[in-house]
Every structure is written in C-alpha cells, then in structure tokens.
Amino acid sequence: xxxxxxxxxxxxxxxxxxxxxxxxxxxxxxxxxxxxxxxxxxxxxxxxxxxxxxxxxxxxxxxxxxxxxxxxxxxxxxxxxxxxxxxxxxxxxxxxxxxxxxxxxxxxxxxxxxxxxxxxxxxxxxxxxxxxxxxxxxxxxxxxxxxxxxxxxxxxxxxxxxxxxxxxxxxxxxxxxxxxxxxxxxxxxxxxxxxxxxxxxxxxxxxxxxxxxxxxxxxxxxxxxxxxxxxxxxxxxxxxxxxxxxxxxxxxxxxxxxxxxxxxxxxxxxxxxxxxxxxxxxxxxxxxxxxxxxxxxxxxxxxxxxxxxxxxxxxxxxxxxxxxxxxxxxxxxxxxxxxxxxxxxxxxxxxxxxxxxxxxxxxxxxxxxxxxxxxxxxxxxx
Length: 382
Ligand SMILES: Cc1cc2nc3c(=O)[nH]c(=O)nc-3n(C[C@H](O)[C@H](O)[C@H](O)COP(=O)(O)OP(=O)(O)OC[C@H]3O[C@@H](n4cnc5c(N)ncnc54)[C@H](O)[C@@H]3O)c2cc1C
What we know:
CATH architecture of the largest domain: Up-down Bundle
CATH topology of the largest domain: Butyryl-CoA Dehydrogenase, subunit A, domain 3
Bound molecules: flavin-adenine dinucleotide
Order of helices and strands: HHHHHEEEEEEEEHHEEHHHHHH
Radius of gyration: 21 Å
CATH superfamily of the largest domain: Butyryl-CoA Dehydrogenase, subunit A, domain 3
Number of strands: 10
C-alpha cells in the first residue's frame, strides 16, 4: 500500500526500508510458530541489538543509537506488522524497563545494566500491574520498606510481559501506602535476588509470542542504590516522562491493521466466487477502501504525536487521540479482514485469526479507551 511519507527524512525512509527487510526475514517466518508455542524468540534480542535498533532513542554514552520518537514509531509499526507479540516483548524491554533506568537510574545502575540491555544480552520487564491494581495505579499493594541501606519488597505482580525471561525488572512498589499514587517508587530487581520468584507463566488469547508471568516478592531485599528515581515520586515521574507508551500502542495497532489490510487486498484479488474475484463486488471494494483509509489515518495521528514530542511541543492530547483512534480502528479493520477472508481466515494456519486475537489488547493496555477519552475531554477543558 502506498504511504503518505512526505514528512519522513531520507534516514527515516531508510530505517523503514531496513526494518521491513528485517521483519520479512526474521519475524514474519516465525510469527505463527511462536504464537502457537507461546514462546518469545529470545534469540532475536542480540540480533536487534547488533543492528542498533534496541538503542533507538538512547544516548551514545550508554551504547545507544540516538534517534527520535518518530524513528521509534516506525520501529514499532514494522515489528508489529510481523508479530504484535514479538513487538510487545521488545517494547516492554526498551520503552519501559530500559527507558526508566536511563531517565532515573543512578550512573552506577545505568553503566551496569544499559549497555548489555541495548546490545540485547540482558532482557528487562516492567512490573506495575497487580490483582487489585490495573487502571487504578494508586491501588498498588506491593510494599517496599526501608531497612538500613536497603529496601525490603513484599507483594505480587500480575500480567507481567517478559516476566518469565527477564534478567532485570523495574518494579513499582509503594513506599508510602497512605499517599497512594504519590507514594509509589520504582526499584530495580535483578532476577537472581533472593526473595524474588516467577510464580507462574500465564497463557493468553493474543500476543502469544510475548511471554507473561505472575511474580512474587517475599522479603526481597534490594540495596538502596536500586531505588530508581525519587522515593514516593518515581512512578509519577515515570508517567510524566515515559510518554512513549501511547504513541507505541498507536504504532503497533497501525502495523497489525496494515498487515490485515494488505492480506485482504491480496485475497480479494485472487478469491473467485460467482465467476469473479470477490474484490470486484462493490460491497467488498468499499469495505477494503475504508480499511486502507483507517490505516493511513491511524498512522498520520500516530506520527503527528511523535513529531510533536520530537519538537518538544505539548503532545498529551495528540498521543491520546492517536492511541484511541489507532487501537479502535485496528480492531475494526481486523474484524473486516476476517469477514472478507471468510472461512479461510478463520483457520488456525491463517495469520488473520492471529491478528484478530492480537489486536484487542492494545485497546486495554497503556490506558484503556475510556481513560484516553477521559484524558482527551480533560485536555479539551471539560
Ligand atoms: C497482553 C498484556 C500484557 C501486559 N503487560 C504488562 C506489563 O508488562 N507490565 C504491567 O505492569 N502490566 C501489564 N499488563 C497489565 C496492564 O497494565 C493492565 O491490563 C492495564 O493496566 C489495565 O488494567 P486491568 O486489565 O486490570 O483492567 P481494569 O483496570 O480492571 O479495567 C477493566 C475495565 O474497566 C474500565 N475502567 C477502569 N477504570 C475506569 C474508569 N475510571 N472509567 C471508565 N472505565 C474504567 C477499563 O477501561 C476496562 O474496560 C498487561 C496486560 C496484558 C493483557
């Protein structure tokens, strides 16, 4: 599908081209198998690291490759085009775990963890959600209590992507429960810390190529230098600073929707019923035209938010609009793709059924659609 890329620099077009080649060679061929086996292909970590992609947006001082939010949006769309599950595993590592260490970690922590993480030799996870804390972050019940020159963590985390494979975690824990959101801090917890364990691997409907776990902390003692950012303010600072999540979600959704749309376009040209390709029926043609329109509108909103962020402009409303529109449109586009594929799309070997299972989660994570609508209304002055 032709794309409105008039605002991309030559370097960004080259990045997009190289990522498409990488996805076609390394991700698309294994996407169905990883999905079926519920396995993240950890062997891709050093490959992506060697090509410099894991270092996008990180400074050279920690081994990063620099780059912009728009570069990162391009990366997310291209990886998700091949496999949303694989893209999600890389996202959590880069945009949450590593980004938190880079923004708020001490020099010692950064020097120790970021270079190997950016080379793809260490894998990170972001451990915020709990049984009682999802949209309502202030309900986090995992406690971190200061004890001399250490903190002692107790609690359990649920739905943690990369949990089963992570070498390090950035854990959100309460250091002042009565202050709820204003009492949440971030801690680096290494996988081999006594008191930390992966309690269970979790099986999911979609994005099955990413691995997910329930984690438990029982008197898990971490040195005070593992506090990432300010005590009691770490999570709020992260919410304010790590704004990429909504832009990345919009890019993932664009990638899945584009893959579904392209597959439908190809199928409609070859599937013959009543003596003609189904793409010649007006009802199908109009439907596919709408799908293509929605993919392009989603990308434009996503890139608008990324460009605003790159220019240092306010971009909260733009990011929420992009996330809301792209993720909801993705679900609609994928539903139409399944419809136009008929029974063929419903079969296990079809990528369409995988897209159908993968898309929904992006409406929920990084602030559900309701929370985005609420933020947009607030930005509009309501
Ligand atoms: C595939 C996947 C990967 C994940 N990976 C991670 C991870 O790596 N790390 C991590 O910490 N967490 C992760 N999560 C968990 C994620 O953070 C939560 O799913 C998310 O915060 C939403 O919380 P919840 O699922 O408990 O839904 P809830 O907050 O219980 O929401 C349920 C419903 O209620 C609605 N709702 C809630 N509050 C309001 C309100 N104020 N107004 C209107 N409607 C509302 C929501 O929109 C939603 O429809 C993952 C989840 C999934 C599914």
